[in-house]
Amino acid sequence: MTDIAFKSAKSLAAMVRAKKIGCTELLNHFLARVERYNPSLNAIIQTDIARAKKRARAADRALAKGNIWGPLHGVPMTVKESHDVAGLPSTWGVPAMRKNIAAEDSLAVQRWLAAGVTLFGKTNVPLLLADSQSWNEIYGSTNNPWDLEMVPGGSSGGAAAALASGMTGIEMGSDIASSIRNPAHFCGLFGHKPTWGICPSNGHGLGGAVAQADISVIGPLGRSAADVALGLAIMAGPDEIDARGIKLQLPAPAKKSLSEYKIGIIYSHRTAPVDRDVQTLRRDLAKFLKGQKVRIDEQARPDIKMDDIHRTFDILLRAATSGRMDDAGYGRLLRQAQRLRPDDDMVKARGIRG
Q1: Residue 90 is a catalytic residue
Q2: Does 155 participate in catalysis according to the annotation?
Q3: 174 preceded by cis ω (within 30°)?
Q4: Could you tell me which of 134, 129, 130, 155 has the C-alpha nearest to residue 144?
Q5: Is the pLDDT of residue 203 over 80?
Q6: What is the tens place of the pLDDT at every residue in 220-268?
Q7: N or C: which end of the chain has fewer CB within 10 A?
Q8: DSSP string of 208-270, one letter each residue
Q9: Active-site position among 134, 174, 179, 216
């Protein structure tokens, strides 16, 4: 029988509510897997087991009285290291921030806890969340659970490795340049980069930053699409200040079945070429959808220029991350920008200008 650790978070929550497994029992099951598999993966790099067990016991008592805390009551969870959790370090992999202990939970962590999760640890990241692997001088390197010689992606690589190996029930990462989507792809999971601004990033900023960086978001990772949808519903919505002026409210889909949809598919593009193996999977998906009476259009294209979008992204990405530079680093890039040829439109040149 498949280990329950590989069930979706929604399934685990349903088992808890049906009293097929207790919250403490479920937490202990995951912790046993952490003890067994984490030494070779190095995905979970901080834990607060005592506090997690105390919360799990409280969740069991609440359930016994018919009190359900939320849709994920009793589901064990870890979060990406960059999210503040009271009493644990938020270092972003920067050695100088090793003793940066969070005083309170981030807003998103508070919302996950309100949804009933049992939070027990944090997962690894690369230096400054700025790589497609997950290594830093403080915690070392995280390995891919499918092949220990491979990386799990980044920067939410520890999150993805922990999920894919069945060491946690659901995860929260962050994404500016595929930092959720890349690890989800590398580890065979579901991950979502939400629309900018709908998931407030309060408590996800190095050195006390309070403003959300351009194009940078926080978002969920899960073992099912339904988990990601639930995670987004838990996280989304304005913070206390923005809530005075805006409200997030999306209507339910008007269409009720797959057969009502018409879907345009792009298998690859010269600006962003797709591996043949992935193209094959997309064609298999299109074939499946056609079998469900979905109208598939392989020629339809949006009235946009992919090159222009990619150029804008390259510039915005470097502009958004440039706040991490010191004055000397900025001065060097400024001199490089002044030496660029006006017709140089390579990715590196775009980044320097950004």
Answers
A1: no
A2: yes
A3: no
A4: 134
A5: yes
A6: 999 999 999 999 999 999 999 999 999 999 888 899 999 999 999 999 9
A7: N
A8: G--SPPTT-EEEEEESSHHHHHHHHHHH-S--TTGGGT-----PPPS--SGGG-EEE-----T
A9: 179
